[in-house]
């Protein structure tokens, strides 16, 4: 019987802390119930086969063809993991069948790519007999981050992979990308009669596109101009010394967003739900005006949700499309969704997609056989 492992990994929603991970900053994601499942089987030859329930074509090659410059498209996120595992010292078998299937909406800013990477990484490790303990999870964050940045070509900062591997059910995950620490932050809004809703604008985005990389370079340039290793070490006074208006706006967002993460965690711990909502909305305004990564569809979703009773709303993810989130009284959820649908229809836009977003479990091994 062929040795086979099946693993799952979730998508994520970032509550607050956007474009701060690659600036050594703070982020606060949750895992979604939507996930990717990977089935990894050992072959008797030295070939790699990669297939998907969502794609007709099957990629075949070998481990030597899984690295940077050899693969593109969705396959790069799978092949890149196999390459990165080898780069990080894992003895990856030369022959594997990898089949994936998922229900994380593509291009929605909910990290379908990291979900895919993590499911594959966990599946390969499980097939090799490695335990998925805390140390292993943290190693796989780096493996999957290398796959995305070096093979798929998306210059992300590690937020998505960390969310898929380190979150806990019912909790947000406070991530500090300067010292590497993590903390589970319980979410009590369900007991307070609130729900977090996700509005997928269905405006697709891709982090491999140039705008995301441009924002990262601008942040690096701002830190360099200030003589700092990263914008995590900047404050409002330092930002005010930047003479370039664009760099000043980018840095202002990062500094204020880190402060908002701290404030949201404190408000969650106090159960100050109105303040949580206000901080979400302030984050969106900063992403729209200072970091300039929102779009008209995201703004419409946020403004309509707020006008229909949400305590707060913001875009989530890298921006330039994707999804918005809103913290909404449970008895207003249907009304908010209807209002957003109507607003999109009135603007001549195709209907958005609505998702429930309970804070869910991190990646896990489903089964190992053979």
List keywords for this structure.
370 residues; single chain; Ribosomal Protein S5, domain 2; alpha+beta; globular; eight-stranded mixed β-sheet; Alpha-Beta Plaits; four-stranded antiparallel β-sheet; 23% strand
Write up what this structure looks like.
The chain is of the alpha+beta class and 370 residues long. The protein has 2 domains: 4-186 and 361-369, Ribosomal Protein S5, domain 2 (2-Layer Sandwich); 194-356, Alpha-Beta Plaits (2-Layer Sandwich), CATH 3.30.70. Helices cover 40% and strands 23% of the residues. The protein contains 10 helices and 12 strands. The strands form 2 sheets. Strands 1, 2, 3, 4, 5, 6, 7 and 12 form an 8-stranded mixed beta sheet that branches. Helix 2 packs across helix 4. The longest helix is centred in the last third of the chain and has 26 residues, at 245-270. The protein is globular and about 60 Å long. 52% of the residues are buried. The mean pLDDT is 95.
């Amino acid at each position: 019987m062929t040795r086979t492992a099946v693993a799952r990994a979730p998508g994520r929603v970032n509550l607050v802390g956007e474009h701060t991970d690659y600036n050594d900053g703070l982020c606060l994601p949750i895992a979604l119930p939507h996930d990717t499942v990977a089935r990894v089987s050992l072959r008797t030859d030295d070939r790699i086969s990669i297939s998907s329930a969502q794609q007709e074509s099957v990629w075949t090659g070998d481990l030597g063809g899984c690295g940077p410059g050899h693969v593109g498209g969705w396959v790069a996120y799978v092949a890149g993991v196999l390459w990165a595992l080898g780069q990080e010292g894992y003895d990856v078998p030369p022959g594997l069948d990898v089949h994936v299937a998922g229900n994380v909406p593509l291009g929605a800013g909910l990290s379908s790519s990291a979900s895919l990477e993590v499911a594959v990484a966990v599946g390969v490790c499980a097939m090799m007999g490695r335990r998925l303990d805390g140390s292993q999870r943290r190693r796989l964050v780096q493996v999957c981050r290398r796959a995305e940045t070096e093979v798929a070509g998306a210059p992300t900062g590690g937020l998505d992979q960390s969310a898929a591997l380190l979150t806990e059910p019912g909790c947000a995950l406070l991530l500090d990308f300067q010292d590497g620490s993590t903390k589970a932050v319980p979410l009590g809004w369900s007991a307070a009669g609130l729900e977090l809703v996700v509005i997928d604008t269905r405006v697709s985005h891709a982090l491999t596109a140039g705008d995301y990389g441009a924002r990262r370079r601008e942040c690096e340039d701002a830190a360099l101009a200030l003589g700092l290793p990263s914008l995590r070490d900047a404050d409002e006074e330092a930002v005010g010394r930047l003479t370039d208006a664009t760099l000043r706006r980018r840095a202002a967002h990062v500094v204020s967003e880190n402060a908002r993460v701290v404030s949201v965690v404190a408000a969650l711990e106090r159960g100050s739900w109105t303040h949580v909502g206000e901080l979400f909305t302030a984050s969106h305004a900063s992403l729209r005006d200072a970091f300039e990564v929102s779009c008209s569809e995201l703004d419409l979703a946020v403004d309509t949700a707020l006008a229909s009773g949400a305590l707060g709303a913001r875009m989530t993810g890298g921006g330039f499309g994707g999804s918005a989130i809103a913290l909404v009284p449970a008895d207003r959820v249907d009304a908010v969704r209807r209002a957003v649908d109507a607003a999109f229809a009135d603007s001549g836009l195709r209907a958005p997609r609505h998702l429930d977003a309970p804070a869910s479990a991190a990646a896990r091994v489903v089964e190992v056989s053979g």
